[in-house]
Design brief:
272 residues, mainly alpha, Cyclin A, domain 1, 3 domains, 12 helices, Cyclin-like domain-containing protein, Cyclin-like_sf, Cyclin/Ssn8, cyclin-dependent protein serine/threonine kinase regulator activity
């Protein structure tokens, strides 16, 4: 999915990246994630959202950003202690033919996303609502910047949830759950009454979202243990296909299917 690093590199507002994440999740409910290269679909979603917003970006701008992020010199997913890599423009230089090929893929995927979503690209983000709710709660007697920042972190993390929380719940519920989690982390004293009902959120939805938001970090950590290549640069479709083959699955026409025993045995023999 588009991440804040890509939004920053294109000098697009954080809201553009967040909306692109939601658009991409909606699209992948209709088309298989394995149907196209992940970076191409991610770029198309980011380009589409920026295009209809106040800060449009050209296809060349998007190409330059993704070429850099896909290069060995990219700082994407590097640990802070590793420092920034040495600049080498040759590592992400793109020729005119590269640009036109990327532009063709980008525009085709943009059209595909619009078709799959029936041209409904509206996304309501919960961030502004969360700040309004915090003001109503007098910021739970916490420093405004501290608790606001923590709430925003939870809302941004929820964008990466495999449970697709932004697709299953409304913005007001997401905002309320983020406030609840932030208050717990900071030790803020919350109202003794069921204050979330004021924001039209019931206890069951709140509990589900609270657990869902807090579990994202653990899920990502377990994925990295299972698949060490996760987090080492931008994930590519070939890496996922190899992982599927290891698990006895195969991607075909964008869909995954179980390999039959004979085919799986032949693949194991070939790999020896």
């Amino acid at each position: 999915m588009p991440d804040p690093g890509r939004g920053t590199a294109t000098r697009a507002p954080q809201s553009v990246t967040a909306q692109a994440n939601v658009i991409l999740a909606r699209y992948w409910l209709i088309d298989s994630p394995m149907a196209h290269e992940f970076s191409d679909v991610s770029a198309a979603a980011l380009y589409l959202v920026a295009k209809v917003g106040p800060t449009p970006r050209s296809t060349r701008d998007v190409l330059n950003v993704y070429a850099y992020l896909l290069s060995p010199k990219s700082s994407l997913f590097r640990a802070p202690q590793e420092g920034r890599p040495e600049e080498d423009p040759k590592a992400y230089y793109q020729t005119e033919s590269d640009y036109f090929a990327f532009q063709s893929r980008l525009l085709a995927l943009e059209a595909r996303i619009l078709y799959c979503l029936s041209f409904n690209t509206h996304v309501s983000l919960p961030h502004a609502l969360a700040i309004t709710y915090l003001q109503t709660l007098d910021f739970l007697s916490q420093p405004k910047s501290t608790i606001s920042h923590r709430v925003t972190q939870y809302l941004n993390t929820a964008l990466l949830s495999p449970q697709m929380l932004y697709l299953t719940h409304q913005p007001h519920a997401l905002a309320t759950a983020a406030i609840y989690n932030a208050a717990r982390d900071l030790g803020a004293k919350m109202p003794e009454t069921e204050w979330w009902e004021v924001f039209d959120v019931d206890r069951e939805d709140l509990g589900f979202l609270v657990v869902g938001m807090r579990s994202v970090e653990g899920i990502l950590a377990s994925r990295r243990e299972e698949m060490p290549w996760v987090g080492e640069g931008m994930t590519k479709r070939t890496l996922v296909e190899r992982e599927l083959e290891k698990r006895g699955l195969q991607a075909e026409n964008g869909q995954t299917k179980q390999l039959d025993k004979e085919e799986e045995a032949m693949r194991m023999l070939d790999s020896r």
